Amino acid sequence: MNIIWHSDSKQYHLYNDKISYIMGITPTGDLGGIYFGKRIHDKKDMSYVVNRFGLPNVAVDPDTESYSMELNRQEYPAFGTTDFGTQAYEIELANGSRVSDFVYASHKIKKGKAALNGLPATYADKNEAMTLEVCFEDEAAGMSLILSYTIFDKYPVITRHAVFKNTGRSVTKLTRALSACIDLPDQDYEWMQFSGAWARERIPEVRRISAGSVSIESKRGASSANQNPFVIIKRPNTDDFSGEAMGMSFVYSGNFIAQAECDTFGRLRLLMGINPDRFTWPLKSGETFETPEVVIAWTDEGLNRLSQTYHELYNNNLVRGKWKNTPRPVLINNWEATFMDFDEERILEIARKGKEAGVELFVLDDGWFGSRNDDYSGLGDWIENPDKLPQGIAGLARKVNALGMKFGLWIEPEMVNPDSNLFRRHPEWVLATPGRKSSLGRHQLVLDFSRDEVVDHIYGMLKKVLKNAPVSYIKWDMNRSLTEVFSQELSADEQGMVYHKYVMGVYRMYEMFRKDFPDILFESCSSGGNRFDAGMLYYAPQAWCSDNTDAIDRIRIQYGTSFGYPISSIGAHVSAVPNQQTGRSVSITTRANVAYFGTFGYELDLNHISDEEFEKVKEQIGFMKENRELLQFGTFYRLRSPFEKDQAAWMVVSKDKKRAIFGLYCMRSNVNQLPGFIKLAGLDDDLIYKLRGEKYYGDELMNLGLALKELNTESLATGQDFISYVEVIETQE
Ligand code: DGJ
C-alpha cells in the first residue's frame, strides 16, 4: 500500500496489491479522475487522459481556453462553471450566488486513518491504511474544502469523505454535500440495488445502466427498508464467481442518495451522500461540516469476492469493542411469544425452558415500562411497570442470571406515545411543524433527537434502569419514519439541519451507552430491517434483519443482506409456526437451517413445542455453539440464488479452508426432476474432504459439484414442504 504524489504532473497514485486509484489536479485546480480498477504500474505522468480540446457547444475555462470539466473526469464537481452533470456539492453564498470554484491549495499524506467527528467510520492503524487529504480554497466564497481518501493495505477499498470550512466572514449555506463522486470512462454496467419494504427488506434488483440516470434514496429519516444505502455496479457478465464489480456503501443511517448518471460522451458518474432534499447547513465564520464516509470496494473476481471484502472490512475495521469478531450468544426473545402481555413469572417460564435447551441470553422485548400494555401508550416513560416486574429490571435480570443466563433488554429511545407522561410534560420535544397536524406511525411520535437536552434526558432515564441491573445486551428499536420534520429549538434558517442533527443525536446516545456500558452487545432494529446500514454497525455489531421471521422469506432477505453486510451482523431467529407474518408452517429444522447463517436465537416459547421438537432445539443450539465462529466469521459464498431457482444454497468456509458448512434450501418442491449437482466454492483444490461418510477432493466438489439429495422424495416421505439441509464439510485427517 502506498500513496505517491508526482509533483511535476500533480498526480496522485493510491495503490495496494489489488487496486490503483489515480487522480490529478486539473488545469482549473480541481481534482480530476484518471483511473480506478486493478492495480497498474505507477507512472510519473498520465496527463494524456486529460482532454484539452474544445467540442462544439462546450463551455471552457477562460484561463486555459481549452479545458472543460464537462469533457474530463471529475472527483468532486460543482455545477455552475463548465460541468453540467449532477454536482457533488452546492454552496449558497450570502449574495445568493451558487457558483463555486475550489482551487487546489495543498495536500497531506498520512499513515493510518483519522476518526470522523461524531460520525461512524471505518478505522485503521498506521500499518493498515494510508490517507490522502487534498485541500482546496475558494477565495471568493471564503470557503475551504478537504477531500479525504483512505486506501487500506489488505482490502481493495478506498474510503472517502469531505470537510467544508467557512474561512470567510459571512454565513454561507451548504445546500448539498455528498460524500463521494467518481466518473468512470464507460457505461457498460448494470446497477444493483437492495430494495423492499417492511418484512421484505434488501431484495436485489438489477437493471442495465443506460442514457439518463438511475438513483435510489431515503427521505424517511432512517436509511430505510425501502432502499438500502449500498449499491453495486457490475459488468453485465459479472456473477457471484467472476467478473468486475464495484460497491459503494454509505456509513450513515439517515436520508441518503445514491446515483449513477450517464453523460452523453459515454461516461458514467457515481454519487453517494446525504440526501440534498431537505438538507441545508448554514456555516458561520470558522465552522466546519464533515460529510459521512463512503466505502468503495472493487473486484474483478465476482460478487462473492466483493461481499467478502465488505464482510471482512466491517468485521475488522468498523465493528468496535468487546463484540468485535466475537461469536454471538444464542438468545431467546419473548416478543412473538407474549407480545406485551407478560409478568415476571411468565418471562421466567420462557427463560427456564430456554436455559434447559442451552440458550445463553434471555431478551425482554417491548412492554416492560410505563403504561405500555399495547402500542398506544407508554413510550417515553422509561420506568419499569411494577405490576409486571415487581422488582424491576434489576430484579428480573438477577433472576435470569441465577438461571445461568445473561439478560438483555429492548428499548426504543427515539420515540414517544402522545399518551405518555413524557409527552404530557414536554410536547415541544417532538418533531412537529407548527400549524400542521402530526402524522402518527404505530401510534407514536418522533422525539427531536436534534436537541441535546432531549437525548440527554432520555439517556438519563435509561441509564437509571441499567445502572443497577446486570444487562448484557440491548435491542435498540425505531418503529416509524420521520414526518413533519421541524425542530422547535432551531431558527427558520436552521430547519434544513434537522434530519442530519437527528442522526447525530442517535449516534451521540449510542456513544454514551458505549462509554458507560462498554460490554453491552447492541442489536439495532427498526421495525426489523429499516435501518440496516454500515453506520449502525459502528455502534451495534448486529441488526435485527427483518420482522419477517418466516424461514422461506428469510432466505431471500438474508441472501440480499449478505451482499453488503457480514453474516455476524444478521439477526436471525427461529420463530413459532404458523409464522406470524406469512401464516406458513416450516419444519423446525428448516427454520434453524436458515437462522444458523446469522446471529441465531429463538423467538418463541419453547414450552409450547413438542418434545420431539424440543430435542431438536437442544441439538440445534449445540450445533450453533460448536460452529458459530465459522458460521458468523467464515468466508461466505452465495451458491444459488433464491430469486432464480426453486432452490437456494450458500456456504461458509474457514480461513484455513479445512472446514466448511453448506446450506441448501428447497423453496418449492418439483416433481419428476433429477436432483442434480451444486458446485461448492472456496475449498482447497487438493485437500480431501469428508462429507456424508464419503471422501471428495476439493476440486471435485467445486467443479463436478456435490450431488444433491432428492428433496422431493424427502418431502413426500416426511409430509413436509420446504425441506433443507445443512452439512459440515471437513478435511480428512
Ligand atoms: C419491532 C421489532 O422489529 C420487533 O422485533 C419488536 O421488538 C417490536 N418492534 C416491539 O415493539
Q: Could you tell me the CATH topology label of the largest domain.
A: Beta-galactosidase, Chain A, domain 5
**Number of distinct beta strands:** 39
Please count the helical segments: 13
State the domain count. 3
Mean pLDDT figure:
97
Q: How far apart, in Å, are the first and last alpha carbons?
A: 38 Å
Summarize the structure.
The chain has 733 residues and is an alpha+beta fold.
Structure, explained:
- The model has no long low-confidence stretch (mean pLDDT 97).
- This protein folds into 3 domains: 2-317, alpha-galactosidase from lactobacil brevis (Beta-galactosidase, Chain A, domain 5, Distorted Sandwich); 331-630, Aldolase class I (TIM Barrel), CATH 3.20.20; 640-731, Immunoglobulin-like, CATH 2.60.40.
- The chain has 733 residues and is an alpha+beta fold.
- It has 13 helices and 39 strands.
- The strands form 7 sheets. Strands 6, 7, 8, 9, 11, 12, 14, 15, 19 and 20 form a 10-stranded antiparallel sheet that branches. A 9-stranded parallel sheet has the order 29-28-27-26-23-22-21-31-30.
- 20% of the residues lie in helices and 30% in strands.
- The chain binds (2R,3S,4R,5S)-2-(hydroxymethyl)piperidine-3,4,5-triol (DGJ).
- (2R,3S,4R,5S)-2-(hydroxymethyl)piperidine-3,4,5-triol binds at residues 335, 365-366, 410, 477, 479, 525, 527-528, 544, 547.
